[in-house]
């Protein structure tokens, strides 16, 4: 499993004002009237040459083609945004798809100029359909083994061979043929790409009927077909490099997770006519979280291409995750095919989309390269990905500093710092707490004039990043991020340099005279380290903040959760004296929502960094552990496990980092609901998969106290259930998605 090229990775991107305006413009056009479900080119919304011409007239075909060739000279990100809107609406894009998506960019890079002048204006006008003649009967995903040959003759080439699974070849104007133009001991060498008009003598196309009765695929027999010299793309023998770049564009596009979005949206819209629609909210929210992560990955890849990159492995990773989601989506929705639902247009539309995709879903994970092969492609870069993970996971001097402090503690040879048995507090995390207090980090994000260390919520999350990546826990989530925010809203100063305050929520009420609290606090974390409990109280619909001295509580002995974090549960308050009770001026519901979002984002940040490190440890271990005479990372099954670990970590990270980046600076920034809910949902769900997969890779050593993996998996499991479970946040996302016709798509796009 060797490393090739740069380390793979994704960076979240923020859309510019121009890009957001473009989205709104395309959406207004695409959503003017609903497109009917179509089984004709279903993964591309349908087939209509007239519609392709209309899109071209608006400048939405050939968007990245330079103006000198009739294009709009816009960015790959802008094209991705336009295509996403059209796919989500179910618009028919099949008539220009391949030419626009991959042939045009290849021609712009490789030429020749004569072919650019011939084809690019036609592509930009929506008048050119190009089929991809790549796969052969004996060469499916192994395209380097193609047998089609091109023999050099006067003025051009004579091509002979056979292609199969060639989409829309029966409708195409041209075909792009991968063929061998010279022999080489290295099978990837000596390949070329040549374009041939479909009316060329010697081409025979035979449609292949699919199990849905449609004829999307074709067999193409190429019998001594002539192609002029200047129909060779780029240099002779460079076909493999060109094809790899083209396939990256094919695999990374939004169609890899949005071709089934019209189906999903029709299901969401039909819930208003179904019995007990709330039962599907969690499922809907989980799908939205995955799609939001995939959208960010797709846009990130488009930005890389705009900047001159060739994100082959990133595209393979995105395609694997996206098409698996699409395939599973059809399976999960199939149980609703014969549900009891109010008859009408909404139900009919959902059922028709479902029937179409039921018979097409089997091909989702094979088209564009089977997912199993793509995982092998990604696995070749996992070593460099793991080695560069620290830079990617931390990303700031503050996170790096905190990580180094925590990592030194965990590395202490004293066995007590490795981890602890169940129900005992983690000594390493307790030592980290002391370090954070000594360095003044406990009060980060709390204004200095209120006793804090200053800084922003983003700064506090950087501290969470550093401690989580080291496999330790921090009181900042319950302290400065929640309790500190409540105290600041009430204007209550607190000596964060010397003491710790933690939040306590539950069913608690204050007496009429405001002097005592009665009720139950669900949980108090870090009770032995904290001096003050901060309790949000509702009075007349408004948020008040009460403080209580923890020493005044009659509480159970401190225990610990599965991560070794100290806590007590179900603490009864019986007329406990209130030290302070101060109004905030905020509505109680709004204040509690802000508190929940702050906690959810902090947990998502912690989960994402623990996920990253879990994947890295597993990759490092698999490279060192030998079985049957070789490292276990050479076994395909192990490679698949490792690729899935890294893929899940990357999808979570790009979403969590986008939610983090959206905060900007400030101790009390607005927190986007969709981003945070999706980040919390996705990170919590991925935690369960990652923990299981990592332990499968490690075997027995992974469950021992002496080995580092358990520090991370114990936190993944614990944090996935903390501060509102992933299921709860998914249900909230789903409920909001059902509230309006385009609500699901608006949650995904933020527009």
UniProtKB/TrEMBL annotation:
<feature type="domain" description="Acyl-CoA dehydrogenase/oxidase N-terminal">
    <location>
        <begin position="18"/>
        <end position="126"/>
    </location>
</feature>
<dbReference type="Pfam" id="PF02771">
    <property type="entry name" value="Acyl-CoA_dh_N"/>
</dbReference>
<dbReference type="Pfam" id="PF00441">
    <property type="entry name" value="Acyl-CoA_dh_1"/>
</dbReference>
<dbReference type="InterPro" id="IPR046373">
    <property type="entry name" value="Acyl-CoA_Oxase/DH_mid-dom_sf"/>
</dbReference>
<feature type="domain" description="Acyl-CoA oxidase/dehydrogenase middle">
    <location>
        <begin position="133"/>
        <end position="225"/>
    </location>
</feature>
<dbReference type="InterPro" id="IPR009075">
    <property type="entry name" value="AcylCo_DH/oxidase_C"/>
</dbReference>
<dbReference type="InterPro" id="IPR037069">
    <property type="entry name" value="AcylCoA_DH/ox_N_sf"/>
</dbReference>
<keyword id="KW-0285">Flavoprotein</keyword>
<dbReference type="InterPro" id="IPR013786">
    <property type="entry name" value="AcylCoA_DH/ox_N"/>
</dbReference>
<keyword id="KW-0274">FAD</keyword>
<dbReference type="Pfam" id="PF02770">
    <property type="entry name" value="Acyl-CoA_dh_M"/>
</dbReference>
<protein>
    <submittedName>
        <fullName>Acyl-CoA dehydrogenase family protein</fullName>
    </submittedName>
</protein>
<comment type="similarity">
    <text>Belongs to the acyl-CoA dehydrogenase family.</text>
</comment>
<feature type="domain" description="Acyl-CoA dehydrogenase/oxidase C-terminal">
    <location>
        <begin position="601"/>
        <end position="727"/>
    </location>
</feature>
<dbReference type="InterPro" id="IPR036250">
    <property type="entry name" value="AcylCo_DH-like_C"/>
</dbReference>
<dbReference type="InterPro" id="IPR052161">
    <property type="entry name" value="Mycobact_Acyl-CoA_DH"/>
</dbReference>
<keyword id="KW-0560">Oxidoreductase</keyword>
<dbReference type="InterPro" id="IPR006091">
    <property type="entry name" value="Acyl-CoA_Oxase/DH_mid-dom"/>
</dbReference>
<feature type="domain" description="Acyl-CoA dehydrogenase/oxidase C-terminal">
    <location>
        <begin position="280"/>
        <end position="382"/>
    </location>
</feature>
<dbReference type="InterPro" id="IPR009100">
    <property type="entry name" value="AcylCoA_DH/oxidase_NM_dom_sf"/>
</dbReference>
């Amino acid at each position: 499993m060797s490393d090739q090229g740069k380390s793979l990775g994704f960076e979240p991107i923020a859309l510019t004002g121009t890009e957001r305006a473009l989205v709104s413009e395309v959406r207004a056009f695409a959503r003017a009237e609903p497109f009917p479900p179509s089984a004709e080119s279903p993964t591309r919304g349908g087939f209509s040459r007239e519609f392709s011409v209309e899109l071209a007239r608006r400048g939405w075909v050939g968007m990245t083609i330079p103006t000198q060739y009739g294009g709009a000279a816009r960015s790959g990100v802008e094209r991705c945004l336009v295509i996403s809107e059209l796919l989500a609406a179910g618009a028919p894009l099949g008539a220009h798809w391949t030419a626009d998506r991959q042939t045009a960019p290849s021609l712009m890079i490789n030429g020749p100029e004569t072919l650019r002048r011939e084809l690019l204006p036609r592509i930009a006008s929506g008048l050119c359909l190009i089929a991809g003649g790549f796969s052969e009967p004996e060469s499916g995903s192994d395209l380097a083994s193609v047998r089609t040959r091109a023999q050099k003759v006067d003025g051009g080439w004579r091509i002979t061979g056979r292609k199969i699974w060639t989409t829309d070849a029966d409708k195409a104007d041209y075909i792009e043929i991968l063929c061998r133009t010279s022999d080489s001991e290295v099978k990837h060498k000596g390949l070329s790409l040549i374009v041939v008009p479909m009316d060329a003598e010697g081409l025979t196309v035979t449609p292949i009927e699919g199990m849905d009765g449609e004829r999307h695929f074709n067999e193409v027999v190429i019998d001594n077909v002539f192609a002029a010299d200047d129909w060779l793309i780029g240099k002779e023998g460079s076909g493999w490099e060109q094809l790899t770049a083209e396939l990256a564009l094919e695999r990374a596009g939004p169609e890899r997770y949005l071709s089934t979005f019209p189906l999903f949206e029709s299901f969401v819209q039909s819930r208003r006519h179904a019995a007990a629609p709330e039962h599907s909210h969690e499922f809907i929210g989980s799908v939205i979280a995955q799609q939001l992560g995939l959208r960010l990955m797709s846009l990130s890849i488009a930005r890389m291409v705009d900047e001159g990159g060739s994100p082959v492995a990133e595209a393979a990773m995105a395609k694997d995750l996206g098409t698996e989601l699409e395939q599973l989506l059809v399976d999960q929705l199939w149980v609703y095919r014969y549900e009891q639902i109010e008859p009408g247009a909404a139900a009919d539309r959902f059922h028709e989309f479902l029937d179409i995709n039921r018979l097409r879903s089997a091909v989702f994970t094979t088209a564009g390269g089977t997912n199993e092969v793509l995982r092998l492609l990604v696995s070749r870069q996992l070593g460099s990905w793991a080695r560069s993970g620290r830079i990617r996971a931390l990303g700031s001097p503050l996170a790096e500093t905190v990580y180094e402090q925590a990592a030194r503690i965990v590395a202490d040879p004293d066995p007590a710092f490795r981890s602890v048995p169940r129900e005992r507090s983690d000594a390493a995390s307790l030592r980290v707490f002391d370090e954070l207090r000594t360095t003044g980090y406990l009060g980060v994000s709390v204004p200095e004039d209120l006793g804090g260390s200053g800084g922003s919520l983003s700064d506090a999350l950087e501290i969470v990043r550093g401690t989580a990546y080291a496999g330790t826990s921090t009181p900042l989530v319950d302290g400065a991020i929640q309790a500190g925010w409540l105290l600041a809203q009430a204007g209550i100063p607190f000596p964060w340099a010397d003491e710790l305050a933690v939040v306590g929520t539950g069913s608690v009420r204050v007496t009429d005279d405001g002097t005592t609290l009665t009720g139950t606090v669900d949980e108090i974390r870090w009770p032995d380290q904290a001096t003050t409990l901060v309790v949000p109280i509702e009075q007349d619909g408004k948020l008040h903040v009460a403080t209580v001295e923890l020493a005044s509580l009659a509480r159970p002995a401190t225990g610990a959760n599965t991560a070794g974090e100290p806590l007590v549960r179900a603490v009864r308050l019986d007329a406990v004296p209130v030290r302070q009770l101060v109004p905030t001026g905020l509505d109680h519901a709004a204040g509690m929502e802000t508190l929940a979002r702050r906690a959810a984002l902090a947990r998502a940040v912690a989960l994402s960094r623990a996920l990253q490190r879990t994947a890295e440890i597993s990759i490092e271990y698999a490279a060192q552990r030998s079985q049957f005479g070789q490292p276990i990372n050479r076994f395909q099954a192990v490679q698949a496990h490792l690729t899935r670990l890294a893929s899940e970590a990357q999808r979570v990270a790009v979403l969590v980092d986008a939610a983090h980046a959206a905060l900007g600076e400030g101790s009390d920034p607005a927190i986007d609901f969709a981003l945070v809910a999706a980040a919390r949902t996705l990170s919590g769900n991925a935690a369960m998969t990652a923990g299981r997969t990592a332990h499968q890779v490690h075997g027995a050593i992974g469950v021992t106290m002496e080995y580092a993996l358990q520090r991370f998996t114990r936190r993944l499991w614990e944090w996935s259930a903390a501060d509102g479970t992933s299921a709860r946040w998914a249900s909230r996302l789903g409920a909001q998605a059902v509230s309006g016709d385009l609500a699901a798509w608006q949650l995904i796009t933020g527009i």
